[in-house]
Sequence to fold (327 residues):
Amino acid sequence: MSVAGAEPLLRVRQLCVSFMVRAQGRAVRLRALQNLSFELHAGEALAVIGESGSGKSTLARALLRLNTVESGEVRFRGIDLLRLRGAALRSMRRHLQMIFQDGPSALDPRMQIGAILAEPLQVFRPELAPEARRAAAAAMLERVGLSPQHLGRYPHEFSGGQAQRIGIARALIAEPALIVCDEPLSALDVSIKAQIAALLKSAQKQLNLALLFIAHDLPAVRALCDRVLVLYLGRIMEIAPSESLFTAPRHPYTRALLLAVPVPDPRLARARRVAPLPGEMPSALDPPSGCVFRTRCIYAIARCAQEVPELRAVGASLVACHRAEEI
Fold:
């Protein structure tokens, strides 16, 4: 949980990411992220939600320097990550780890689990002897609910949930301050999903970890995260404390996402009578002018086509909507 007045662990300012792609036989620029600004504190879990194509995974990779950033600033503990090169960047990666969506695919099938877990220690703590690395790997397996006897096994011998536990162990063993979780629950069964979410929450609290949690599973976001950032077509629509966002969303897009969550009670589902979000997300190659959500928004007015709304405080939220107070 963030502490009022504390210096953020991660501070992002005006982050822009674009790619050159081919469309209709010519090279054009696709603007994947536009002017993103937010902060993340030590011990805080910040969710990033939005439809597929919103830019969630692009954001994750940009923060970890896995994508080329066009412009902006990403400061981790006051250091601008975008300016780091060579050994300085490699050293910083110890503090910034990632958990991937598909646990089994994220593990090298040719390596035993012991070698997979020891590899980050070889890179970031080369002074450790092989016996010390193996002991650390065994202890980390126990921490994530597996047995040290699994060190000699290969990834194909594990279920999807077990593989995701190994992925979490690999991220934790480097003793990072921030872990980016790119939809770590989406490929799991419901019961396993709850176990992995509980494991992440426990590790976050015990180690004072910051989590950037990318997800489509909104009930999991509400249970796991302190704040939520809503992305649409590469722009931030809303940032708010989790409970405030789920009980009093300020942006029309946030409201549409929450109303799309299935209700288990058929009677309540019928009573909601919610129309689906109209249309499809426009192409990032040709985004709408002004507010990028306006072409699907029932509250859109002429101003929405002319001015890009700035993030501003409305209630407990920061929201990019000209009509947030009315909604």
Q: What stands out?
A: Residues 33 and 76 are 19 Å apart (CA to CA). The mean pLDDT is 91. Residues 249-327 form one domain. The chain has eleven helices and twelve strands.
